[in-house]
Amino acid sequence: MVSPGTLSLLTALDDGSPAELEPTVDPDTGAVGYPDAERLLNPTDDPPFELLESLAERGVLEKSFEEKVYICPDCDAEGLQYTTACPDCGSAYTVETDLFEHLDCGCVEPQTAFEADGNYVCPNCEEHLDSLARIEQGRLHTCRDCGEWAESPAHRLACRACGELHAPLEAIERALCRYALTDTGGQWLRTQLTARDALVAALDDRDLSVSVDRALTDDGGTAHHVHVYGEDPLFDNQTVGAIHERPTAENVATLREAADAAGARAVLVTTTGSVGERAAAVAESADITVLRADSAGDLHREYEVTEDPRSGMGIVQRITSAVSQKS
Ligand SMILES: [Zn+2]
Ligand SMILES: [Zn+2]
Ligand SMILES: [Zn+2]
Q1: Most exposed: 133, 240, 259, 323, by fewest CB within 10 Å?
Q2: Which ligand lies nearest to the CA atom of residue 147 in the structure?
Q3: Rounded to the nearest whole angstrom, what is the distance from the C-alpha of residue 195 to the centroid of ligand 2?
Q4: According to the CATH classification, is domain 185-326 in 3.40.1350.10?
Q5: What residues of the chain score a pLDDT lower than 50?
Q6: What is the pLDDT of residue 200?
Q7: How far apart are CA 300 and CA 202, in angstroms?
Q8: pLDDT for 21-55, tens place per residue?
Q9: Which ligand has the shortest distance to the CA of 154?
Q10: What is d(CA 214, CA 177) in angstroms, rounded to the nearest whole number?
């Protein structure tokens, strides 16, 4: 299984509450956040964005593109707005202007400068123009700050927070995506939950008071999140349980720490029926009970010890390969 926080997140997606994780952008810092994920994950989990990306990479989640946002490189604010600007002085105060050029004297001025009482008069040579035959017309961007004209203005992104203009490539670009559970992810999730229910039922049968996704705090104040916790305070009898598709030595060590924090015995459940060599060795020396959950939700004592996965294969890759082997 993944961490209890990740499991809560995936369970919420499976329940449709929410059906998708929507991105938000902090208007002050430009940071992309996933508030639902932040709410459901525990502080010990990976940062939401990294976690979602890794789950998406491995097919548990699917992501769909929502929009791109541009962040101010100076002040980190989001919501840059397109503007044209003067290529000479950089001012955004440019306006498109109709220009006339008097071909006889070379005078170039805005059309309005040629207008006089419904007629056209060259403002330079003062020739009265009966027709526009000797006038070349054009439309240029004129800068109201420095007076320069340009055929094409500069393209800029303006920051509404600090007022700076940036060339588009200077702005920080972020693609925002939504994440939802895939069919494969849903199938995997239900296998994990079935196994967790089986462990809950087994502890319940032994008259323990059982809860799921519990945080157990050790003497140093560190919280350890476990999938299952059962206790019988009268007899000072506690059990912590973790569910993993194919437990690793790291999973075993994490469970051991949680068990030590609670002074509890530890039970590790494998949903694929297999445990890595190192994990099996660590579990045995740490006195951890290993059980196999079958697809019907029954627990068994025998399990298989298999070669450790190649390094670099992430937990979720193993999840998805385990799921695809099953289907
Ligand atoms: Zn200018
Ligand atoms: Zn003229
Ligand atoms: Zn800014």
Answers
A1: 133
A2: 1
A3: 91
A4: yes
A5: 312-313, 325-327
A6: 96
A7: 11
A8: 999 988 777 788 999 999 999 888 889 989 999 99
A9: 1
A10: 31
Q: How far apart are CA 124 and CA 103, in angstroms?
A: 12
CA of 80 to the centre of ligand 3 (A): 8
Beta bridge partners of 241: 228, 267
Taking the centre of ligand 3 as the mean of its atom positions, its distance from the CA of residue 170, in whole angstroms, is 12
Nearest ligand, measured from the Cα of 108: 2
Match 């995936």 to its residue by tokens: 10
* pLDDT for the residue numbered 305: 92
100 touches 106 (CB < 8 A): no
pLDDT at site 203? 95
Report CA(123)–ligand 2 centroid distance (Å). 7
Between the CA of 82 and the centroid of ligand 1 the distance, in Å, is: 17
pLDDT in tens, 183-236: 999 999 999 999 999 999 999 999 999 999 899 998 999 999 999 999 997 888
In angstroms and rounded to an integer, the radius of gyration of the C-alpha atoms of the chain is 33
pLDDT of residue 327: 40
Boundaries of every domain in the chain: 4-9+20-74+171-180, 81-158, 185-326
Ligand 2 centroid – CA 126 distance (Å) = 6
Chain centroid offset of residue 23 CA: 7
Query: Tell me, what's the pLDDT at 120?
Result: 93
